[in-house]
């Protein structure tokens, strides 16, 4: 364990014919993504208050919380709650109010919940209040989508700049498929979609690109190395060669995220579960989606490029050709 | 590639040592004051506190400016005896509309109003557009430049007043800053229930002293006589009082206000002091109006309307009005801090209690420790000695991240802690790439040194590419995100920078030292 590695994650010299399953992989991915898009519209995402506007108050009670008592206390004050639910511990309660009319309405609702609890639920302590007005929630939503969209665009441009365009298109199409699946996951699990989730999805995007870049890098290198090998075999070879690395890094990020999901507390565990899901999706898409797309787009063009003398990358500035 | 000059080695070790030193301020207070003692701040979600986003009501700012202009228009038209049928402010269109009784006098009116457009001090462009329209009306429109200048000054002024009011509450280390066009961010560490602050900020606290019109009857149904307002009493809003529109003395002329008790009645009162100008005005008014009532008006509500018994010439006065100790004190605070130029609305609030924050820190720390150990174990099991090289670098990486964040005085949030953990998971990615590459090169028959050389060089271009994309994504998140999410973006971007350093420098240095010391015939990768 201290000097020589004992185990290999994947045995060396695997020769799995991944490209045989390319249509299968694309089809499964497409079906899942379409299902996710359907889920996105129905039942839709469970928007957190960052994006929907409204009020969330986390209450800590002495001993196990009496939900009916809290509901009654709110009803007595005519506060239209949208949910009183357990939040992790038995003594933690999350009270949720919908978007309130007018900017002052939100603040008044906070004050009313506070007085209602003080009056009718002795020992209850409000440990967290999030109140977001309608105008702010719209802005947060817009900015979140903007961040997501611009990131995708920048990644496209970057990969385009560093690789041939087929790689860039392959990467971004795969990323879009990944992101839609993450959104489908959010829709099914009813994990709240809020700003932290945007961060989570962006991290998945960054991580997944990272993964694709490694495979693509190897494809590009092999394109120069084996000038006559059919692209299909070449991609298979590249995936097999980088398999240990692809799975290894997924494992480490997975291991790093797992404790967050398990011990990170209610407010961050949703983030971590989405990350875990995204790592699995991102890793499999590097193998089963990004590579087949490259094969479809590059079947003729990439080979001709590589065969044309002198072997010069299309971008012209990528990096010096690999030594033999 | 695998050769390190003494200087280079020293620089790398120096950076690591510097990193270690930069972490120290997070562990202890500064021993001497002149040392730069920068440290990571805990976000409000971890230390507990309140975040309030306030919006300045720009419509009110415009309306006030237009109302002020109305007076100017009236005064400008009076000397020429130009009569008008309508004169009204239209805040929605940022303008004043004037319809003359005799359209033939439009030119006279335009000439009389001309001086108003040049009234702004120090501005090169007129802040008002004066125009006569084909339908016989005259409009005075605020120019966009003037509007934005006014908005900027309203926000600046509001920030100042907000700061003064919050300082009065004794909150330690509040942070107040402008955000965007017309918003103000207030961060109050340690404040779990920002109710009192919200109450203090919820009033513009514009106080005026005006005479009461004793001839008018506010109980009637008719509109108030020209020059009067019917204002509700503070204690009993149903009861109204006819108050002159003309402001005799403004709250801006106050220099001090303190809560106290009246020794005769034992009631809570607010004692105030005027500056010289205010004192003189107040003396003149009270001298001329003995035995008449004057009203003390706060935000269009009458606090009290006492009868003037004798001229008040000392520049001091007292407000009574059924105060409690708390409300008298609050009013004194508001008067001392000054009036807000426009009402503020809380559009976003996030408050976290310190115990929840402590829970989050604990949960984050446990996750961090477990995640670190899992990653270390993984690397040790699957990569042996080279895995341990990676683990040492992982520790260096963690230290450098903390150092860089301290240097930037960045804010650590709960998502930020998640970001650190993810960085740890992704940082060893670089080492895995290197190890796999070196292993492959060796398998292809290269001798150890050449395998290392090639492995590092080739892996590094991949490492750079893969990190660059993640870097771009998180810079965007920082640009567009807010609050705790920005903390996440900060830790990840900082982590990417440190990862590039440790993967390129530290790992290589470790491996080269080890190689020089042992000269192995086969690399244990």
List the helices and strands and how they pair.
The complex is a heterodimer of chains A (324) and B (525).
Chain A: H1 22-44, H2 49-52, E1 54-60, H3 67-76, E2 81-87, E3 89-97, H4 103-120, E4 125-132, H5 134-162, H6 165-189, H7 195-225, H8 231-263, H9 266-298, H10 301-307
Antiparallel strand pairs in A: 1-3, 1-4, 2-3
Helix pairs in contact in A: 1-6, 1-9, 3-4, 5-6, 5-7, 6-7, 6-9, 7-8, 7-9, 8-9
Chain B: H1 6-23, E1 41-42, H2 44-47, E2 49-56, H3 58-77, E3 84-90, E4 95-100, H4 106-117, E5 128-132, E6 137-142, H5 144-168, E7 175-179, E8 183-189, H6 195-201, E9 207-211, E10 228-232, E11 240-244, E12 249-250, E13 254-261, E14 268-274, H7 276-288, E15 294-298, E16 301-304, E17 316-323, H8 325-337, E18 344-352, H9 354-407, E19 411-412, H10 414-443, H11 448-480, H12 484-518
Parallel strand pairs in B: 1-19
Antiparallel strand pairs in B: 2-8, 2-18, 3-4, 4-6, 5-6, 7-8, 9-12, 9-15, 10-11, 13-14, 14-17, 15-16
Helix pairs in contact in B: 1-9, 3-4, 5-8, 9-10, 9-12, 10-11, 10-12, 11-12
Question: How would you describe what is shown here?
Answer:
- The complex is a heterodimer of chains A (324) and B (525).
- Chain A has helices at 22-44, 49-52, 67-76, 103-120, 134-162, 165-189, 195-225, 231-263, 266-298, 301-307; strands at 54-60, 81-87, 89-97, 125-132.
- Chain A has 324 residues and is an alpha+beta fold.
- In chain A, strands 2-3-1-4 form a four-stranded antiparallel beta sheet.
- In chain A, helix 5 (134-162) runs parallel beside helix 7, helix 6 (165-189) packs antiparallel against helix 9 and helix 7 (195-225) runs parallel beside helix 9.
- The longest helix of chain A has 33 residues, at 231-263.
- Chain A is elongated, with a radius of gyration of 25 Å.
- Chain A starts with 21 loop residues before the first helix and ends in a 17-residue tail after the last helix.
- With 525 residues, chain B is an alpha+beta fold.
- Chain B folds into three domains: 6-46 and 355-518, Multidrug efflux transporter AcrB transmembrane domain (Multidrug efflux transporter AcrB transmembrane fold); 58-148, 2-Layer Sandwich (Gyrase A, domain 2); 202-350, 2-Layer Sandwich (Gyrase A, domain 2), CATH 3.30.1360.
- Chain B is built from twelve helices and 19 strands.
- Classes of the chains: A alpha+beta (324), B alpha+beta (525).
- Strand 4 (125-132) of chain A pairs antiparallel with strand 18 of chain B.
């Amino acid at each position: 364990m201290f000097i020589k590695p004992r185990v290999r994650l994947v045995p060396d010299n695997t020769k799995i014919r991944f490209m045989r399953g390319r249509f299968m992989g694309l089809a499964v991915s497409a079906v899942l993504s379409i299902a996710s898009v359907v889920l996105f519209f129905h039942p839709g995402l469970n928007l957190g208050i960052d994006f929907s506007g409204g009020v969330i108050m986390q209450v800590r009670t002495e001993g196990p919380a009496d939900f009916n008592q809290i509901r009654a206390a709110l009803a007595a004050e005519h506060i239209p709650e949208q949910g009183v639910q357990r939040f992790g511990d038995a003594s933690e309660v999350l009270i949720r109010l919908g978007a309130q009319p007018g900017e002052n309405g939100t603040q008044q609702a906070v004050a009313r919940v506070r007085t209602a609890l003080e009056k009718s639920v002795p020992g209850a302590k409000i440990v967290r209040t999030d109140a977001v007005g309608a105008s702010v929630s719209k802005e947060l939503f817009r900015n979140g989508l903007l961040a997501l969209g611009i990131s995708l665009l920048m990644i496209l441009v970057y990969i385009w700049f560093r690789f041939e365009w087929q790689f860039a298109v392959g990467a971004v199409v795969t990323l879009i498929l990944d992101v839609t699946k993450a959104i489908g996951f959010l829709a099914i699990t009813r994990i709240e979609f809020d700003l932290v989730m945007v961060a989570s999805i962006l991290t998945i995007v960054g991580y997944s690109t990272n993964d694709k870049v490694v495979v693509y890098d190897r494809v590009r290198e092999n394109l120069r190395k084996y000038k006559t090998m059919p692209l299909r075999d070449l991609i298979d070879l590249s995936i097999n060669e980088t398999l240990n690395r692809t799975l290894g890094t997924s494992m480490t990020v997975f291991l790093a995220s797992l404790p967050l999901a398990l011990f990170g507390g209610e407010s961050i565990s949703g983030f971590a579960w989405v990350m875990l899901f995204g790592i699995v999706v991102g890793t499999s898409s590097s193998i089963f989606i990004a590579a087949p797309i490259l094969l479809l787009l590059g079947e003729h063009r990439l080979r001709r490029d590589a065969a044309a003398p002198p072997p010069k990358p299309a971008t012209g500035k990528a990096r010096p050709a690999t030594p033999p | 590639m695998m050769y390190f000059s003494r200087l280079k080695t020293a620089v790398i070790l120096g950076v690591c040592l510097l990193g270690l030193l930069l972490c120290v301020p997070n562990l202890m207070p500064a021993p001497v004051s002149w040392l730069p003692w920068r440290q990571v701040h805990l976000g409000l979600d971890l230390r507990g506190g309140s975040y309030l986003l306030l919006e300045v009501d720009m419509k009110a700012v415009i309306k006030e400016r237009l109302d002020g202009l109305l007076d100017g228009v009236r005064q400008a038209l009076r000397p020429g005896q130009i009569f008008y049928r309508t004169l009204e402010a239209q805040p929605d269109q940022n303008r004043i509309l004037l319809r003359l009784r005799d359209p033939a006098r439009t030119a006279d009116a335009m000439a009389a109003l001309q001086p108003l457009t040049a009234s702004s001090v120090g501005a090169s462009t007129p802040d008002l557009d004066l125009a006569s329209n084909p339908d016989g009306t005259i409009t005075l429109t605020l120019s966009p430049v003037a509007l934005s200048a006014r908005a900027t000054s309203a926000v600046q002024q509001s920030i100042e007043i907000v700061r003064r009011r919050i300082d009065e509450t004794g909150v330690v280390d509040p942070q107040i800053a402008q955000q965007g066009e017309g918003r103000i961010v207030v961060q109050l560490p340690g404040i779990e229930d920002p109710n009192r602050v919200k109450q203090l900020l919820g009033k513009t606290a514009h106080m005026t002293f005006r005479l009461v019109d004793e001839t008018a009857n506010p109980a009637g149904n008719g509109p108030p006589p020209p020059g009067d307002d019917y204002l509700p009493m503070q204690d009993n809003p149903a009861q109204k009082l006819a108050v002159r529109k003309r402001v005799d003395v403004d709250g801006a002329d106050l220099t001090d206000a303190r809560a106290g008790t009246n020794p005769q009645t034992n009631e809570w009162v607010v004692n105030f002091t005027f500056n010289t100008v205010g004192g003189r005005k107040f003396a003149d008014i009270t001298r001329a109006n003995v035995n008449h009532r004057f009203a003390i008006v706060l935000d269009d509500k009458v606090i009290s309307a006492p009868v003037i018994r004798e001229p008040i010439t000392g520049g001091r006065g007292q407000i009574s009005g059924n105060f409690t100790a708390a409300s008298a004190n609050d009013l004194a605070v508001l008067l001392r801090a000054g009036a807000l130029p426009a009402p503020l609305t809380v559009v976003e609030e996030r408050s976290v209690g310190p115990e929840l924050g402590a829970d989050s820190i604990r949960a984050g720390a446990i996750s961090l420790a477990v995640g670190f150990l899992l990653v270390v174990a993984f690397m040790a099991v699957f990569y042996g000695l080279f895995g341990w090289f990676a683990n040492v670098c992982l520790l260096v990486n963690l230290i450098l991240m903390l150092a860089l964040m301290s240097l930037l005085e960045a804010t650590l949030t709960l998502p930020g802690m998640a970001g650190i953990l993810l960085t740890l998971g992704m940082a060893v990615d670089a080492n895995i790439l290197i190890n796999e590459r070196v292993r492959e090169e060796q398998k292809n028959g290269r001798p150890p040194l050449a395998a290392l050389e090639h492995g590092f060089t080739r892996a590094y271009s991949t490492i750079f590419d893969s990190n660059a994309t993640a870097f771009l994504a998180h810079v965007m998140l920082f640009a567009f995100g807010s609050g705790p999410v920005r903390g996440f973006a900060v830790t990840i971007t900082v982590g990417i920078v440190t990862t590039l350093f440790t993967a390129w420098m530290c790992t290589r240095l470790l491996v080269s030292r080890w190689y020089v010391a042992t000269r192995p015939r086969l690399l244990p990768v």
